[in-house]
Backbone:
């Protein structure tokens, strides 16, 4: 596997036994990297040859370095709160889409960021009080996936900053966690918004 945040790994290996017979026989690396070198992600072919009495015997093998690192969100907030004050009954949902980090500076490894939830794009629209869950994924060129999940919570407050009554702060998120792979790569998957009923006012 590739080293964390690297485009490859240091690989050690024993030179092949290609049938050396005499001390004068010479084993040489004809192409590829040597043991202890940094091998890039992908297929790396190493070729050796042994020369004896004017003839040669070749030996080759493949070292496969796999990218198993999932993209990680940078500064993925669990909750973005918007408060409605005065006569306001709606607010615009607006935020900067999440950013992901990965060893994507490796050659040919680019990230594809997708909004999974909600299916309908409500960014930039006016919405009333409620909980609006968002799930973004980032997939690298080898199929590793990372997630950023968060909620935009719009709630009405009074002049004292306390939450008003009769607000249904609920979420309609429905997503199978098994489809997200490793749960550790998908933070904030519990979408029940823990608002305190003691904050209500009549």
Residues:
């Amino acid at each position: 596997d590739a080293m964390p945040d690297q485009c490859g790994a240091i690989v050690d290996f024993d030179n092949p036994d290609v049938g050396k017979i005499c001390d004068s026989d010479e084993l040489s690396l004809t192409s590829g990297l040597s043991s202890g070198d940094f091998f890039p992600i992908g297929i790396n072919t190493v070729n050796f040859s042994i020369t004896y009495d004017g003839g040669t015997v070749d030996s080759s093998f493949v070292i496969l370095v796999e990218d198993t690192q999932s993209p990680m969100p940078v500064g993925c907030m669990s909750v973005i709160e918007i408060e409605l004050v005065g006569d306001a009954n709606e607010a615009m949902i607006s935020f900067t889409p999440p950013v992901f980090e990965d060893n994507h500076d490796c050659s040919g490894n680019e990230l594809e960021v997708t909004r999974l939830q909600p299916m309908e794009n409500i960014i930039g629209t006016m919405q009333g009080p409620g909980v609006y869950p968002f799930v973004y994924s980032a997939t690298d060129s080898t199929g590793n996936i990372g997630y950023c999940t968060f909620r935009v919570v719009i709630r009405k407050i009074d002049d004292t900053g306390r939450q008003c009554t009769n607000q249904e702060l609920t979420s309609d998120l429905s997503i199978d966690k098994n489809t997200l792979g490793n749960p550790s790569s998908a933070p904030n998957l519990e979408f029940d918004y823990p608002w305190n009923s003691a904050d209500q006012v009549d």
Summary: The longest strand covers residues 145-156. The mean pLDDT is 78. The two ends are 59 Å apart (CA to CA). The CA atoms of residues 113 and 138 lie 4 Å apart.
